[in-house]
Amino acid sequence: MSASPINTAGSATAPRSPIVSLQRVSKTFANATVALKDMTLDINSGEFVSLLGPSGCGKSTALRIIAGLSSPTAGRLVWPDARPGAQPGAQDHAISFVFQEPTLMPWTTVFDNVHLPLKLKDQSADASRKAVMEALEMVGLERFATSYPRELSGGMKMRVSIARALVTKPRLLLMDEPFAALDEITRFRLNNDLLRLWQEFGWTVIFVTHSVFESVYLSNRIVVMAARPGRVVADLAVDAPYPRDETFRTSHAYSDHCRSASEALQAAMAAEGDSGH
Ligand SMILES: Nc1ncnc2c1ncn2[C@@H]1O[C@H](COP(=O)(O)OP(=O)(O)OP(=O)(O)O)[C@@H](O)[C@H]1O
């Protein structure tokens, strides 16, 4: 499927310039698996981009490379706004990562879990109290600061994980299938909360998902990837305006976008292995 121009009308903040550019990024693991081959992609400031693709197409690998958790074996990442001489990586670019599992510390409170990234920067609980409580308020959990993870539902644990990502006030939020393990009602609620926060705070979000429906609901841009080797095969605009709500979920525009994204995904699966290694 051919790429269509990206129309970001209706996004929380109009994209200005790339926050990060992947330039012919490849990743070959030691066992010779080509997880990514020549991935070229600009992520623009303020966008909500979904990486959509079948299992094994390199979505998590791409996210980990952007996060600085893994290095490309070829190609490069360019951060146009980085301070001259700054080390590329999470610190400089104010990146936060949300994983599929909430990965909370079970032995301590919600407050302490959210405080962790600030504690790692040597900020005491007292000095961080305002920031932690603000992050908990963002996700509607301010009344649960003294609760323990075992007292929370799966959706609430994921909210804590999101609060922990937000407490450092990131510019770029990387989310690797954050809602995949949740039931559909909880997932829809968290989808709405995430969109509300994105509109309010204007971060850039890169969101990995297997779900056509979730990618269309959330994103103003869907990057479709194929596997063996992992690569970008389509770049689709979802030009429906925000705020999006249940009316959008049941609209013709939504089903039209879902059909286009499904077709692109089918084409991606059919193309697997076409371009070899
Ligand atoms: N550390 C590693 N060593 C070797 N191969 C790896 C490693 N990590 C990932 N791979 C392989 O690289 C390819 C891409 O993996 P990746 O996890 O990025 O895909 P994905 O699209 O995120 O998949 P999923 O949707 O199943 O999470 C897969 O074939 C995977 O098995």
Walkthrough of the structure:
By secondary structure, the protein is α/β, with parallel strands linked by helices. It folds into 2 domains: 201 residues, P-loop containing nucleotide triphosphate hydrolases (Rossmann fold); 62 residues, no CATH class. The chain is 35% helix and 22% strand. It has 9 helices and 9 strands. A 6-stranded mixed beta sheet has the order 5-6-7-3-8-9, with helices on both faces. The longest helix is centred in the C-terminal third of the chain and has 19 residues. The chain starts with 17 loop residues before the first strand and ends in a 7-residue tail after the last helix. The N terminus is likely disordered. It binds adenosine-5'-triphosphate. Adenosine-5'-triphosphate (ATP) binds next to helix 1.
The Rg value, from CA coordinates, equals 19 Å
By oligomeric state, this entry counts as: single chain
The separation of the N and C termini measures: 21 Å
Q: What is the tally of helical segments? A: 9
> Which residues sit in consecutive blocks of at least 5 with pLDDT less than 50?
1-15
Return the CATH class of the largest domain: Alpha Beta
| Total domains | 2
CATH topology value of the largest domain: Rossmann fold
- Ligands (ions, cofactors included): adenosine-5'-triphosphate
Helix fraction?
Answer: 25-40%
Q: Structural class of the helix and strand makeup? A: alpha/beta
Strand content: 15-25%
Number of strands: 9
The neighbouring-strand order within the major sheet is: 5-6-7-3-8-9
Mean pLDDT: 88
**Order of helices and strands, N to C?**
EEEHEHEHHHEHEHEEHH
